[in-house]
């Protein structure tokens, strides 16, 4: 039980640090909060609403992992390093793919709600 409590504290600390230091994380938390009521309005079913919220939460998860990689890379060196730049670009690409996926889910749900599917 103690291990679970410590892991919870570590997770809270990591999220708090990310919120303080990364604008993208703040924007995605805002999008997640906004998605909660919107998903229930747009989702044709309760399951679809949950999927929509999870799609936005997935973007946040990928952003947190990308932020962790970037912070670690910056800790290694602040000098320009081609390979570190490529690693950071891959993390950014992962966020971009997650955003595209979330957007596709939301577009499909809107189309579904409008009765076109």
Features:
117 residues, mainly alpha, Helix Hairpins, 4 helices
Strand segment tally: 0
From the alpha-carbon coordinates, what is the Rg to the nearest angstrom? 17 Å
CATH class identity: Mainly Alpha
- What distance lies between the first and last C-alpha atoms, to the nearest angstrom? 47 Å
Task: Tell me what the CATH architecture is.
Answer: Orthogonal Bundle
How many strands, what sense, and barrel or not for the largest sheet? none
Give the SSE order as H and E letters: HHHH
How many individual helices?
4
Number of domains: 1
Average the pLDDT over all residues and give the rounded result.
96
Q: Summarize this, please?
A:
This protein is an all-alpha fold and 117 residues long. The protein is built from 4 helices and no strands.
Structure description:
It contains 4 helices and no strands. With 117 residues, the chain is an all-alpha fold. The protein has a single domain (1-114), classed as Orthogonal Bundle (Helix Hairpins). The protein is globular, with a radius of gyration of 17 Å. The mean pLDDT is 96.
List the helices and strands and how they pair.
Elements: H1 2-21, H2 23-42, H3 46-76, H4 82-113
Helix pairs in contact: 1-2, 2-3, 3-4
GO molecular function: ATP binding; ATP-dependent diacylglycerol kinase activity; metal ion binding
Catalytic activity: a 1,2-diacyl-sn-glycerol + ATP = a 1,2-diacyl-sn-glycero-3-phosphate + ADP + H(+)
Keywords: ATP-binding, Cell inner membrane, Cell membrane, Kinase, Lipid biosynthesis, Lipid metabolism, Magnesium, Membrane, Metal-binding, Nucleotide-binding, Phospholipid biosynthesis, Phospholipid metabolism, Transferase, Transmembrane, Transmembrane helix
């Amino acid at each position: 039980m103690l291990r679970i409590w410590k892991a919870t504290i570590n997770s809270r600390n990591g999220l708090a640090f990310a919120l303080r230091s990364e604008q993208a994380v703040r924007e995605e938390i805002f999008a997640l909060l906004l998605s909660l009521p919107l998903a229930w309005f747009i989702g044709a079913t309760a399951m679809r609403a949950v999927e929509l919220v999870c799609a936005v939460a997935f973007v946040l998860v990928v952003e947190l992992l990308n932020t962790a990689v970037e912070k670690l890379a910056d800790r290694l060196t602040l000098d320009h390093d081609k390979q570190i730049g490529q690693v950071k670009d891959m993390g950014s690409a992962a966020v971009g793919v997650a955003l595209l996926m979330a957007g596709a889910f939301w577009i499909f749900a809107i189309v579904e709600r409008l009765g076109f599917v």
